[in-house]
């Protein structure tokens, strides 16, 4: 299952510090049993999407959020308390992908919520995702449960440019800002 965190960060004077903190936090998270991968992304066209940043994690089950190890490292937003005034986010878990593939520097994530099966694009295969939970508290993490369905695809920067995908209504394009942590 995929844990998706869509974020905006509204304090430009602390953004570099926040990114450095988040990179360290990703490395801690993947040390937990049941949380297998973590990678962060930034919108290729942040001015036209709702969420500028995206973090995708591969989970075995939601049980990871019930663990003392997760709570003790500040899971559920407690680790980022110093940045809470600048963060808005939406969190959800999705079935449809067991393990998120690595997206390399020239790769792009295509993420859509109004087209639950994606779009018909050349050489691009969307995977439908269904919410694995509705709105609820999952241990130390609060899940928004929205959207209930969406689609995701991995492509490359050349395809995004050739098809002008950043201008496609209903499609958010994200470029990696970290490597995939495992």
Q: What's this model, at a glance?
A:
The chain has 182 residues and is an alpha+beta fold.
Strand ordering within the main sheet: 1-3-2-10-5-9-6-4
- Report the principal-axis shape: globular
N-to-C CA distance:
15 Å
- The tally of beta strands, per DSSP, is 10
Please explain how this structure is put together:
- By secondary structure, the protein is an alpha+beta fold.
- It has a single domain (2-176), classed as Alpha-Beta Plaits, CATH 3.30.70.100.
- Helices cover 14% and strands 35% of the residues.
- It is built from 3 helices and 10 strands; from the N terminus they run E-H-E-E-H-E-E-E-E-E-E-H-E.
- The chain has helices at residues 15-29, 68-72, 157-162, and strands at residues 2-9, 35-43, 53-59, 87-95, 107-112, 127-131, 136-138, 141-143, 149-156, 172-176.
- The strands form 2 sheets. An 8-stranded antiparallel beta barrel has the order 1-3-2-10-5-9-6-4. The protein has a two-stranded antiparallel sheet with strand order 7-8.
- A hairpin with a 2-residue loop joins strand 7 (136-138) and strand 8.
- The longest helix is centred in the first third of the chain and has 15 residues, at 15-29.
- It is globular, with a radius of gyration of 16 Å.
- The model has no long low-confidence stretch (mean pLDDT 92).
SSE layout:
Layout: E1 2-9, H1 15-29, E2 35-43, E3 53-59, H2 68-72, E4 87-95, E5 107-112, E6 127-131, E7 136-138, E8 141-143, E9 149-156, H3 157-162, E10 172-176
Antiparallel strand pairs: 1-3, 1-4, 2-3, 2-10, 4-6, 5-9, 5-10, 6-9, 7-8
Which key phrases capture this entry?
two-stranded antiparallel sheet, Alpha-Beta Plaits, 3 helices, alpha+beta, 182 residues
């Amino acid at each position: 299952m995929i844990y998706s965190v869509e974020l905006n960060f509204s304090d430009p004077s602390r953004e570099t510090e926040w990114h450095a903190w988040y990179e360290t936090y990703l490395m801690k998270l993947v040390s937990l049993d049941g949380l297998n991968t973590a990678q962060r992304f930034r919108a290729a066209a942040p001015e036209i999407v709702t969420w500028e940043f995206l973090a995708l994690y591969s989970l075995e089950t939601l049980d990871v959020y019930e663990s003392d190890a997760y709570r003790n490292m500040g899971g559920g937003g407690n680790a980022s308390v110093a940045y809470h005034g600048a963060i808005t986010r939406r969190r959800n878990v999705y079935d449809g992908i067991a393990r998120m593939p690595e997206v390399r520097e020239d790769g792009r994530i295509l993420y859509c919520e109004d087209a639950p099966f994606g779009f018909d694009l050349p050489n691009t295969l969307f995977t439908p995702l269904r919410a694995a939970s509705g709105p609820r508290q999952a241990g130390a993490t609060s899940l928004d449960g929205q959207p209930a369905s969406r689609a995701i695809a991995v492509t490359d920067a050349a395809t995004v440019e050739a098809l002008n995908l950043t201008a496609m209504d209903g499609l958010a394009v994200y470029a990696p800002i970290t490597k995939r942590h495992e």
